[in-house]
Every structure is written in structure tokens, then in C-alpha cells.
Amino acid sequence: MPINIPRELPAGKALKQEKIFVMDENRAKTQDIRPLNIVILNLMPEKEKTELQLLRLLGNTPLQVNITFLRMVTHESKNVSKSHLDTFYSTFDEIKDRRFDGMIITGAPIEQLEFEEVTYWEEIKEVMEWSKQHVTSVLHICWGAQAALYYHYGIEKHALPKKYFGIFPHDITDPTIKLVRGFDEIVHAPHSRHTTVSYDAVKNNSELTLLSSTEDREPFIILSNDGKHVMITGHLEYDATTLGDEYTRDCDKGLDIELPENYYPHNDVTKKPLNTWRSHTHLLFSNWLNYYVYQQTPFEWK
Asked: Site feature Important for acyl-CoA specificity: at which residues (predicted)?
């Protein structure tokens, strides 16, 4: 089934070229079906790239999905035009009286700041508090995952000695949990962050289940026991080239940045990186939408 997106959204053309079933607003109105309503709080700087990455995943399920993009009014985005935001994004005030079946809160390149130092932290807190009563399940990515762990469960983040940057293997602790149903024993995934959360703090929290981590005890997939929150500390949504783009950007800025680990074949930047996490990414999004959104959300919100 398709995703329903605004008619002129730039990502729509790319999705159709990839044979993702996309339906615009006009056609969707003729469908006699109860679609899922998903709101995406996109905090990433290159918003159009993130839109395409997430819509590609949400469009690969048998469910019809209506998409609403959300932005922060207390933050001015520098890498996307104001007209794009005005046309395709809503503010919290515009959607706060609605209820959504699912929500995605993305990462943001601000993890080296304390949460309270983030200019839009108060607005983020308001959205996360609102989600408790207005959203069935929330998927949090990277900084969004750290923010959720801090706000909902009091788990602090802390700085790493160096940037955790590359493709890393993770084990699955309990393959019977529906979120990771069908996963292999080892899952590869991209990470790009300067901070982490304590393995022990997550393991010892009675409200959380740690579903996946690395051999060196880096938490990866965390699920609240009520299914309300899914926290992914990496970037499963990334394309094969995304880490390479970040590496080139940082090099151009003159930053002291190492090659992303396990990324370029033989650590040769002239070799094309392979996407070794695509299948698990699609499976995780499908499992989340099916088991934690579709099968849990009320048919009619009251």
C-alpha cells in the first residue's frame, strides 16, 4: 500500500523512480480505508535527504500511511528553504489537537550540547509530553533516542573519547520480541555521534528492554516494555553514501576526523561503500508499523 504525501514534495519524484508506491493527497481522498497517520519531527539539517530516507522505509509496507512533517518554531533551519518548510511542514500549535498512530523523532547534530542548552529543548519537551496521550508509538533516532531516554527515563548521555563513526555489528538479545522478528543474529548499522548512553543504565531500568548492542556494550535498539517508545541510537535510515558525505564534509571543514570504521572496502575512499543494513532497516520499520502502531492504535481516537 502507498504512502500519502503532499503532491509537490520533492521526495515524491525520487520515490516513484525507485518504484515506491506513492499516492498524492487528491487520490488518497478517494480511498475507502483507515490509513495510519504518522507525524515526523525532522530535526536533521538536510531535511529533504531525511524526508526521502524515511519515506522510502514507510512506503515499503502493506499499510497506507498519511505523513505529516513537523518542525520547531524555536529553531531556524539553515540548510533548507523557508518556502519548503512553509509548504510541507506544520508547527506544533497546528497539530497539537490531533492524534497520531505513530511518530518519528529524528536525530540532530547537537549531541555535544547539554539537553538544556539546546535552543528548542523546551519545545521538544512539550512535544514528547504531548506524545504520551496523542501518539500510539514513537520511534526515536540517534539524538532523538538520547533525548527520549533522558526525558522519559532519566538516563543521561555522556561524551565519548572520539566520534563513534562507522558501520558496527550488533547482536540481538531476544529474537522473539516482535520489533526484531525475522532479524539475523548479527545486525550491521551506521553510527555517527559523539555521545552515548550507559549500557548498565539501560539494562537496569525496569521499564526498558535492551534488544541489541555491540560487543563493546554500546546500546543500539531499546524498547520500552509498553511498546510506546522505540529508541535507535544509530542511523538505520542512512543511505550507503551518507557516512562518506559526512566524512568529506568534515574534512573540508578541516576537522580532525578519522575514516568511518568498517565502511570503505579495505579503507579505500575510492571504493564504493556497500549498504549492509538495508534489509534489517526495512524489517524494523515494517515490524514497528505493524506490531506497535497498526495492531495497537484505536480505529477511532476518542
From this structure: 111
C-alpha cell at 157: 548521555
Query: Which residues define the annotated binding site?
Result: 163, 192, 249
For the chain, domains (ranges, CATH) are: 3-158+196-237+277-294 (3.40.50.880)
Residue 251 is among the residues annotated as catalytic for this protein? no
Binding-site positions for substrate: 163, 192, 249
Is 237 a residue of the active site? yes
> pLDDT tens digits for 54-65?
999 998 877 889
Give the Cα separation of 35 and 47 in Å (integer).
24
pLDDT at 31 (0 to 100): 47
The strand pair at 65-70 and 36-41 is best described as parallel
152: region left, alpha or beta (phi > 0 left; psi from -120 to 50 alpha): alpha
Angle in degrees, 0-180, between the axes of helices 47-58 and 278-287, rounded to the nearest 10: 70
d(CA 212, CA 219): 6
Does residue 28 carry a pLDDT above 50? Answer: no
In the chain the first and final C-alpha atoms are separated, in Å, by 26
- pLDDT digit string (tens) for 233-286? 999 999 999 999 999 999 999 988 999 999 999 999 999 999 999 999 999 999
Look up residue 171 and give its three cell numbers.
547482536
CA-to-CA distance for 195 and 292, rounded, in angstroms? 28
- Contacts of residue 295, defined as CB under 8 A and 6 or more positions apart, other chains included, come to none
Selected catalytic residue, list 142, 191, 229, 280 = 142
d(CA 59, CA 136): 19
pLDDT at 298: 82
- Tell me, yes or no, if 235 is annotated catalytic: yes
Mean pLDDT, rounded, of the chain: 91
Grid cell at residue 27: 487520490
293 is written with which cell numbers? Answer: 502502531
